[in-house]
Amino acid sequence: MIQLYNKRSGEPIGAISEVQLKYLIDHLEEESSQDQDYAITPMTLAYFEQAGADPDLVELLRGALGTKDEIVIVWLKP
Asked: Which of 7, 25, 51, 64 has its CA 20 to 30 A from that of 15?
């Protein structure tokens, strides 16, 4: 499993599968091939829902976002 963290606070968000990570990589902008962080906003989550993202992934990210306007997540493989 891949672990997601809040990049700014270092707090763990939760674990995602390889399939869910591939979804993030395929649907979010990366600044380089080494990039492992993404900005998540309410608009991002709405896009994911419309695009048919895994509901568990959307809920995990929604919980991490909470009432904030944006959260930057980072993923790490064990």
From this structure: 51
Q: Is the pTM of this model over 0.85?
A: yes
Residue type, 1: M
Contacts 24+ apart (CB under 8 A), 18-26: 19/54, 20/54, 20/56, 20/57, 21/75, 23/53, 23/54, 23/57, 24/57, 24/75
Biggest CA–CA distance in the chain, Å, is 31
Q: What is the mean pLDDT of residues 27-37?
A: 74
- Considering only CA atoms, which of 38, 30, 33 is closest in space to residue 75? 38
The band of 30, judged by pLDDT with boundaries at 50, 70 and 90, is low
